[in-house]
Amino acid sequence: MATVERELRVAQNQRLFRSVDDRILELGGKLDGSALQELDFACECADTTCVDKIQLTAMDFGEIDENQFIVLRGHEVPEVEDVIAEREGFLIISKRGAVPSS
N or C: which end of the chain has fewer CB within 10 A? Predict the structure, then answer.
């Protein structure tokens, strides 16, 4: 597969997971109302079959830029993304190249 096509596919998959996590954040905040409540967010990796969860507070998730994604260690795709931060149990990655609009 061409590099640009792969970059787009990876980015689209991660945007899908981000929309799921945004909904988790919205619903979690309504239920508890606490920004310090830990929630189970979806791993936002490129693998559409991934069902792994990443636990972090609503406040911590809210601080992640919309063009960054949370992935478990080992789920990053070095060919199309950069690790910009390491946290306990997960990474924050940033896309390179083609990024679809949300």
Answer: N
